[in-house]
Amino acid sequence: MSGDKNKIFKSTCCYCGVGCGVNVTLEKNKTITVQGDKDHPVNHGMLCSKGLNLQYTVNDKSDRLLYPQMRYNKNMPLQRVSWDDALNRTAAVFKTFIDKYGPNSVAFYASGQCLTEEYYVINKLIKGFIGSNNIDTNSRLCMSSAVTAYKMALGEDSVPICYDDIELANCFFITGANPAWCHPILWRRVEAHKAANPDIKIIVTDPRVTDSCSLADLHLQINPGTDVTLNHAIGRALIEAGNIDSEFIANHTEGFDAYQQKVFERTLKESAQICGITISEIELAATYIGEAKGFLSMWTMGLNQSSIGVNKNLSLINLNLITGHIGKPGSGPFSLTGQPNAMGGREVGGLANLLPAHRDLSNEQHRLEVQKFWGGTTISGKTGLTATEMFEALHDGRLKAIWILCTNPLTSLPNARFAEEALKRAKFVVIQEITDKAETLAYADVILPAAAWTEKEGTMTNSERRISHLNKIIDAPGEALPDAEIICRFAKKMGYKGFEYNSMEDIYKEHAKLTYRTSINIHGLDYKQIDKSNTVQWPFNKRSESGTKRLFTNHLFYTSSKRAIIHSPSDQLNSELPDEDFPFILTTGRVRDHWHTMSKTGKVSKLKQHIKDAFMEINPADADFLSIEDNQVIVVRSRRGEVQVKAKISATIKQGVVFLPMHWGKILGSDLNRANNITSTIVDPLSKEPDFKYCAVNVEKFKKD
Ligand code: SF4
């Protein structure tokens, strides 16, 4: 803090997983301004367009939900009620369903934007006291393929690198990611590194020419869905050139022989044809990787959001393993997380298939440890419903009640019209929200107003395992409460003991205690220590107060053999393939200045200037064939529905492929703009992450009836 007039607080940007540090000034008139924190190890004072405009999302309270609302039946309008009335009724309904249909008749659907303390209490409530594992979050839509692959390859879901590896790497393999738009501050570090060291090599793999390609020495513009084939082909080329680390493979991995057999199943010529690139491009990528002293692979949704997302991840991690580029400076497989605290959710085990601190839900001993610690009911070994499964279960009546917080699934889930119908059919819907614009509110039986960023205290963990402490800076408007407090009040109404916390830090300390003797270990870490070190990377111990920069520096992995596993995944795609009726491949993604379903960025006029309206990108040859002109309204249809947007004709996208941004829905626009009206419900069989990057569609000019 400084001066008498304005107070300055440290916080962390609440948008992406980069986790930039910000200084928030509380002005005399109770509004805030935001600046990059020059002392922060992530961003050194820099902020991207979203971060620079954070204050507008908080200062504008015109859309905020201010008090609880409730209705006694679906035909009644919602009415203002007290917190006690809202939570008493919700507890009574939950108890009735649990008694009548069992604990799996209720579910919580949360968000990678929740704070760690919030995640922790929701997870404890449903798994440890209600006795169901029906908790999932929108992180399922984002990085669950990476979680599964890390666990399969390294033994646990552990990101091995730190951001400082960017300045130490001399080859970047950026695949299925557009960090120039989606992780801008990390990208600026890559840009600065390349400017200072022009010899470093940057390979970008993407079916589209994105802004990240502007820095690439090599852009592999592969056909959608062919990532595993490409990664295997690069693996083969590395082996053929002798550019692998045989000593590391022999001493610290298992599975190489089967892998070698697998990657030699296809010739480079065959792989190049499948991927739609040349053999020499594959060989050049292998040369750049093979000759690098530091090799950093970076990826995100292009790999994760796929019917074979786990296989794509595994095939990429293999490239780090066969070259020995892990656990050393400038090297490692680095999954960029999309959301600001997806990592915190992973720490507390806040998904349907996880337990706290990387314990295994299928391991009875692990379940007993957590059960004893929480002192609640028996923790079930059965995986709960994942994101898309929850809505299927609501649709067919297996699930009676759902509590949705901090996320807007009717824009973000695949096949959104189905999700809408599912909410319509649900017996009881609780929506814990900030904005009165969320599409889910139309289906709510109870609405609980939540506090927003800067209105509550807690912690978040960014993509490099860096924990930061966010201060409460201003009061929430009206009767809105912090999410963790709402959950704890509800738990007490249910009659559960163990939710009598005096502060958010009490929750944090309990979470930290549960990590003792696990790979995460933050036991003994409190807010004071995080503040003292500015931020801390887990695992933490008192000898190293800022935590641990890199994992696996001793080359001992978390598997039972202590060796990393080189898997041999299939490259067979399970997606909905194009055919005569639906001849185009649809892929979806983000734009630079918007975030998720635009409940925050949609309030900021500066951010709406970059790209004003929803659009569909199409190659000029395809547009010519369909007689479509630039900016003309078109209809994109799949077997599930349609989207009406303007065409953007661009040679940056491959022929036969079209692209829709994922942000637009009712918050800014209409549900006709919503990309997820048409996306596929196919999910990866292991991670259950949806196939947002591939489905079959057709396109035509919009005709008025
Ligand atoms: Fe916020 Fe991400 Fe931008 Fe950093 S890069 S300012 S965390 S949106």
Strand content: 15-25%
Per DSSP, the total helix count is: 24
Q: Average pLDDT value?
A: 96
Terminus-to-terminus distance: 62 Å
Topology, number of strands: 26
CATH topology name of the largest domain: Rossmann fold
- Shape by Cα distribution: globular
**Poorly predicted runs:** none
Task: Give the helix proportion (percent range).
Answer: 25-40%
Return the CATH architecture of the largest domain: 3-Layer(aba) Sandwich
- Structural class category: alpha/beta
Major sheet: size, sense and barrel closure?
A: 7 strands, mixed
Q: Which CATH C-level class of the largest domain is it?
A: Alpha Beta
Number of domains: 4
Q: Compounds present?
A: iron/sulfur cluster
Computed over alpha carbons, the radius of gyration is 24 Å
Largest beta sheet: what is the strand line-up? 5-4-16-15-14-6-7
Describe this structure in words.
Helix 3 packs across helix 20 (483-493). The chain has 705 residues and is of the alpha/beta class. It has 4 domains: 7-59, Phosphorylase Kinase, domain 1 (2-Layer Sandwich), CATH 3.30.200; 69-142 and 340-522, Rossmann fold; 145-335, Dimethylsulfoxide Reductase, domain 2; 584-701, Barwin-like endoglucanases, CATH 2.40.40.20. The strands form 6 sheets. It has a 7-stranded mixed sheet, sandwiched between helices. Strands 21-25-22-24-23-26 form a 6-stranded mixed barrel. It is built from 24 helices and 26 strands. A hairpin with a 5-residue loop joins strand 2 (21-26) and strand 3. It binds iron/sulfur cluster. Iron/sulfur cluster is lined by residues 13, 15-16, 18-20, 43, 47-48, 50-51, 183-185.
